[in-house]
Design goal:
Blueprint (H helix, E strand, L loop, with lengths): L5 H7 L40 H13 L4 E5 L2 H9 L7 E5 L4 H10 L6 E5 L4 H10 L4 E7 L11 H11 L2 E5 L4 H4 L9 E5 L13 E5 L2 H14 L5 H12 L1 H20 L4 E5 L9 H7 L6 E6 L5 H7 L15 E3 L11 H6 L7 E4 L5 H15 L2
Helix pairs in contact: 2-9, 3-4, 5-6, 12-14
GO cellular component, one term: cytoplasm
Family: Belongs to the trans-sulfuration enzymes family.
InterPro entries: Cys/Met-Metab_PyrdxlP-dep_enz, Cys_met_metab_PP, PyrdxlP-dep_Trfase, PyrdxlP-dep_Trfase_major, PyrdxlP-dep_Trfase_small
């Protein structure tokens, strides 16, 4: 059979029909252990921390979608990232992109730093700064960790350009692909070594699970991640694996609507006299449109923006009727977030401000509702927030 299109892979990828029964929805193997035929002889599974058929189906699916050689399911996005960071040892350093999720910063700054793993923050769009750091600290830097588009300012970095630099210096490139998903962007095909996801977000898509995924493009890396996944044990449960497989089936149609709605709302906000600035990759004003279009099939569903003076952002956040103020993103429903006090609160204020995350910044996860209803709700909240 010829290579399947992405929309078809979402539904039929990963061999998700149960071979034993023919069930078109892969069963939930809600078991912790498996009967063995005799000493050392089993049917492929021994203990569900090590492996579970439902999780295996999910792992095959996400690996195929990301064009990887192996996929791994975790209990959260942070469990996935933490497993990847566990590849490194005392004295190693990881360069992280300047706009990075607060939880990623926190686990490096407060957890892995205690074990002697260092980090450095660099805007990887500045290739000279990246090269300089790699030259200066070439014996210690082992990996680059990149978000693109970055959370929450939606800055876009060329994965291909950074991958070339990483390979030149013999370091790993890890890309957080949560915002784009493999439906829009495939980092491994662009030269990355490892992809991580908070699958809680777009992959699940319904705000009803907490999950994470890792995909690798190299067999040896896959063996190392498999060992760490089993040893650390923060694995995805069978029921959550089932829900994630189900969510992924509709990823294509959802991402199309997320992208459509987000672009319309970004254009509406940019033209609105109450708005100081809008951050969205496909706006000409972003300066990132060409790079985004070169490596992704859309702009995604995330927008950030700032209100002009004379408007109170706190009042705005409390005044939307349809769009709740809540952590997380990527569900079918739209959500508002205040990065400085929510997703990025764990990053010290001086670092937040140095990378452009202002106290007044608002982040909007655009859902798949009718876009006119969303715009009307935003406009009503803007009217109420005028001082």
């Amino acid at each position: 059979m010829k290579k399947l299109h992405q929309d078809t892979l979402l539904i039929h990828g990963g061999e998700c029909i149960d071979a034993a029964t023919g069930a078109v929805n892969f069963p939930i193997y809600q078991t912790s252990t498996y009967a063995q035929e005799s000493l050392g002889k089993h049917k492929g599974y021994e203990y569900s921390r090590t492996g579970n058929p439902t999780r295996s189906a999910l792992e095959r699916l996400i690996a195929e979608l990301e064009s990887g050689v192996a996929g791994f399911g975790f209990a959260s996005g942070m469990a996935a990232s933490s497993c990847v960071f566990s590849l490194f040892s005392r004295g190693d350093k990881i360069i992280i992109s300047s706009n990075v999720y607060g939880g990623t910063f926190r686990v490096l700054d407060k957890v892995f730093a205690r074990f002697g793993i260092e980090y450095e923050i660099i805007d990887m769009r500045d290739e000279n700064a990246l090269e300089s750091s790699l030259q200066r600290d070439k014996n210690h830097i082992k990996a680059l960790f990149l978000e693109t588009p970055a959370n929450p300012l939606m800055t876009v970095t060329s994965i291909g350009s950074v991958a070339k630099i990483a390979k030149k210096h013999g370091v790993l490139l890890i890309v957080d692909n949560t915002f784009m998903t493999p439906y829009l962007q495939k980092p491994l095909e662009l030269g990355a070594d490892i992809v991580v996801h908070s699958a809680t977000k777009y992959l699940g898509g319904h705000s009803d699970i907490v999950a994470g995924c890792v995909v690798v493009g190299d067999k040896e890396l896959g063996e190392r991640i498999a060992f760490l996944q089993n040893s650390i044990g923060a694995v995805l449960a069978p029921f959550d694996s089932f829900l994630l497989i189900r969510g992924i089936k509709t990823l294509g149609v959802r991402m199309q609507r997320h992208c459509e709605n987000a672009l319309k709302i970004a254009q509406y906000l940019e033209a609105n006299p109450a708005i100081e600035r809008v951050y969205y990759p496909l706006l000409e004003s972003s300066g990132d449109k060409a790079t985004q279009e070169s490596q992704a099939r859309g702009g995604g569903g995330m927008i950030s923006f700032e209100l002009k003076g004379g408007y109170d952002f706190k009042t705005f956040l409390q005044s939307c009727a349809l769009i709740p103020l809540a952590e997380s993103l990527g569900g079918v429903e739209s959500l508002l977030c205040h990065p400085a006090s929510m997703t990025h609160a764990s990053i010290p204020k001086e670092i937040r401000e140095s990378v452009g995350i202002k106290e007044s910044l608002i982040r909007l996860s655009v859902g798949i509702e009718n876009v006119d209803d969303l715009i009307a709700d935003i406009q009503n909240a803007l009217n109420k927030s005028k001082i």
